[in-house]
Amino acid sequence: MLSLTLLSIPLLASLLLLFSRGAMSRNLALVFTLVQLGFTIFAYTVFKAEGAGPFDYMQNWSAKPFINVHLSMDGMSLLMVMLTNVLLPLIVLSGYNRETNRMHVFYSLMLFMQFALNGVFMAFDGFIYYIFWELALIPIYFIAFNWGGENRAKVTLKFFIYTLAGSLLMLFGFLFLYNGSPANSLEWSSLVANPSCSCNQSWLFWLFFIAFAIKIPIVPFHTWQPDTYQSAPTQGTMLLSGIMLKMGTYSLIRWLLPIVPAGVQEWQPLVIALCVGGVVYASIIAIMQRDMKRLLAYSSIAHVGLISAGIFALNRSGIQGSLVQMVSHGLTVVGLFFCADIIFNRTKHEEIEGLGGVRLAAPKFAAWFLIIVLGSVALPLTSGFVGEFMLLFGVYQYNTWLSIFAGLTIILGAVYMLRMYQKVVLGKAIKENMVFPDLMWNEKIVLVSIGVMIFALGLFPNPIIELTEPILKTIIK
Amino acid sequence: MNTLIYTSVLGFFCMLAEIMNLRKLIIPVLVLGLAIIFGLNMNDWNLNQSYFNNMLKVDNFSVAFSGLAIFVTLLVFILSTDYYENQQNHISDYMTILTFILVGALMMFSFANLTMLFLGIETLSISLYVMAGSKRFDVRSNEAGFKYFLMGSFASCFLLFGIALIFGSTGSFDLAKIADYTIQNQQNISPMFYTGMVLIVFAMLFKVSAAPFHFWAPDVYEGSPALITAYMSTLVKIAAFGAFYKLMSVTFFYTSFKAELILNIAAILTLAVGNLMALAQTNFKRLLAYSGISHAGYMMLIILSAKNQPAGALFYYSLAYALSTIAAFAIAIPVFSAAKSEDIDTFNGLGKKNPVAAAAMSMAMLGLAGIPPFAGFLGKYYIFTEALHSNYFYTTLVAIFASMIGVYYYFKVIIAMYGKPANEANVELTFNFKLVLWVCLALSLAFGLYPAPILNIF
Q: Hey, of B353, B414, B445, which one would you mutate to test binding to chain A, going by the most A CBs within 10 A of its CB?
């Protein structure tokens, strides 16, 4: 039943917010996301003490077609739920000291998104999972469309159709499994226990894989991503890159690997090559970028490419690493986009070329920006290092040569991230009399908490590993 | 049967009201009367009785669909108070004819005899020809009425000829007896029977506006007055599908495999034509016409799998489709009359001018596109399960791709509302329109979230 509470707080908050106005709605959103965060921490302690029992919720929804509402929790779900609920207050906070029109709708959509994301991570029935998966798409579409920048109509429509196309393929896959399953049910455990015959799995794999690959995105299904990240409002981009793409990587582990195991085995070499190729490709493109948001978008493609490669290596260290890296990437990418937003907010300038010398005006900002950049380039002691190390080790166990190519991500990542940092923050101030006030209170809170978490997880990654260990044992037989 | 008689009485009352100078009473009496008939209709649940030497049969199927039809009519009549405000001198004619469209639809749900089917279809169609052309001084409305009449008469001829051939080979008009004949003479069913069946199938494909018999739909939808288009795209489509489904599941379930290829091709073509042609439309009513064709394509999947009796899926889908479509028209009609045009451009900037209406329109469009949590999604889900269950693997795949295309044109409206600069026209929704709108959306959401009672109705 605890899972229902986790869902109902953001849902009720999002409805309530529709009746508030102006700055009030932002404050309310912050309060509710903090309440949700507090409740998540409580849920964590309960889970530690009593396991999944208190979270299990099962209710029949319809007899024909047979659908059960099944919500539950395991270590992996809890990790993702915590990531979501930790990032949401930070994302809301980053909207302070910024102009947003029709704030009540904006934050209401954001909380609705939180509701859907929590649902995706707790759903243990294919149908319910699909519903939440789609529900998460609607608010982010309207956020990106209504508050977006240039070309938003075209870009967001492309984003929506792209992801919906993938989802519908997945829906077809679920329908097929539903018809073939002996119990006529999409219950996760029954799908895992009775996989479809391997003749079907080889094409079923692609139905699910494409849906997840579009969301993640894995090259070559990534073309919607840079445009969308660039044109969406920063808070929307944070939601997209920080949490929403984790839906894809999470689903790879939760749904794709266990329910089409033979299909995964069959296509593993091709898919892992795609992932690693995408890492190199996206890193090289990122080096070429002049626009800061686009650079971060491509760097994000490179990072999640490595995460997916680790998952498809199908060994313990790869998948474990991917979970650590999902959390780490969620933190760093939100921090990076926020830093880009701070710079844009002060200078109204998005090109890397025209900037420089921010350090002179805003030393505190420069320091925290550096910490997040270092987390992103996987410096030892940061969370990025733990994750990428385990990922690369996983890929190495699968194939040495692939791991060498995948390892390029660290080098290339250092190239584009540090070069960007150097140009923007260090060096001479290019603009005369640049007005660049240092961090405001809300910015300070966001950057400091992200920076602290990056270090904390870099030093003590054990809680994550302990949390997810048992479930991984069942997935990798 | 009582439902049918009381509804006809209501129709006669409308005619007489003109003579007795009770014009103002017409719509209130109709709305009240229909509400009462809706309740009486529910009384027949589980009754399973046949009337007039088995000409009409009241069973749960007919009660459920009659209830839906009466409900849809009720909503349209509530809209008509404001729509016909300035045309009071014709009000009794219009309302009479609209009521008889419902009478025809009720016959099409409860027929147990092919002659009753024909009577029902003709009562509905002839009334509709008149209403399509009811804007007398508008060329397009005249074109719509005439075109519909010409094409519809052809389809009726096909239907009649098919019925005659079936009578010739089986010696009966009765649905159950025809079905018995096909089972008893499994080995030597005459080719005449099959010819008759295929002709009837063609006629029904025309009535449900399935490709390649869909050409009338866009012109007729565009030319007819907007309220009639709303009525046509909901009630008439549901009635046609109800009758079609009944034919395929009760009478032709044993022989339908002979028409399977035709139906399968028609379903795929309908899905493709409806969705692809809708992409290029700029007129909102034409857009909804093609969207209606594409929805007919999804419902064709149920006709294909009629052997497995998926009446629940058909009912749920019809309900979901009707709710979203009427909600869309409840916003479109005031927008059109404010902008004096029926293009998608008239929605430009509605998100700024009237955010509530724009949000409602978005919900209607999401419902039509089949996005959860609206009922449209679960309707599609149910249909796809049934089609896969009957092994229509590739047809379902086509339907999945069709749904992807569908998103594009429904979102065109949403993008116009939020992304384009506002036009001058000021849009205000009157109370009746708001009422219908929110009833539809609330039900669409409610049935999407709590579908069990409707899904398992049969």
A: B414
What is the rounded distance in angstroms from the CA atom of residue B77 to the CA atom of residue B88? 14
Where residue A217 falls (left for φ over 0; alpha for ψ -120 to 50; beta otherwise) is: beta
ipTM of the predicted structure? 0.88
Distance CA(B350)–CA(B212), nearest Å, equals 36
pLDDT in tens, B280-317: 999 999 999 999 999 999 999 999 998 888 999 999 99
- Phi, psi (rounded to 5 degrees) for B86: -95, 10
Nearest in space to A83 (alpha carbons), one of A339, A391, A452, A334: A334
Helix (H) or strand (E) holding A61: strand A57-62
Stated length of chain A:
477
Single-letter residue type at A437: P
pLDDT at A358: 84
Question: Which positions in chain B touch A62 (Cβ < 8 Å)?
Answer: 451-452, 455-456
Phi, psi of B305 (to 5 degrees): -100, 25
Scanning the structure block, which residue is given the tokens 């799998």?
B305
Q: Are A71 and A8 in contact (CB under 8 A)?
A: no
Residue in A11, A59, A158, A172 to test binding to B, most B beta-carbons within 10 Å: A172
The pLDDT of residue B200 is 95
Read off the pLDDT of each residue in B60-69 and give the average, rounded to a whole number.
95
Q: Round the average pLDDT of chain B to a whole number and report it.
A: 92
Q: Which residues of chain A have pLDDT under 50?
A: none
- Cα A206 versus chain centre, distance: 22
Is B125 in contact with B166 (CB distance < 8 Å)?
no
Chain B residues within 8 A of A164 when measuring between CB atoms? 371, 404, 407
Q: Report the candidate in B359, B369, B288 with the shortest Cα–Cα distance to residue B326.
A: B288
Helix, strand, coil share (%) of chain A residues, nearest 5: 75, 5, 20
Dihedrals phi, psi of A253, to nearest 5 degrees: -75, -40
- For B380-398, what is the mean pLDDT? 92
Summarize the confidence of residues B208-214 as an average pLDDT: 91
Instruction: State the average pLDDT over residues B362-387.
Output: 92
B375 reaches A (C-beta below 8 A): no
Report the pLDDT value the prediction gives residue A360, as an integer from 0 to 100: 83
Inspect the interface and report whether the beta carbons of B385 and A131 lie closer than 8 Å: no
pLDDT digits (tens, 9 = 90+) for A92-138: 999 988 888 889 999 999 999 999 999 999 999 999 999 999 999 99
How far are the Cα atoms of A183, B6, B44, B238 from residue B38, in angstroms, in the given order?
A: 39, 10, 11, 17
- First-to-last alpha carbon distance for chain A, in angstroms, is 30
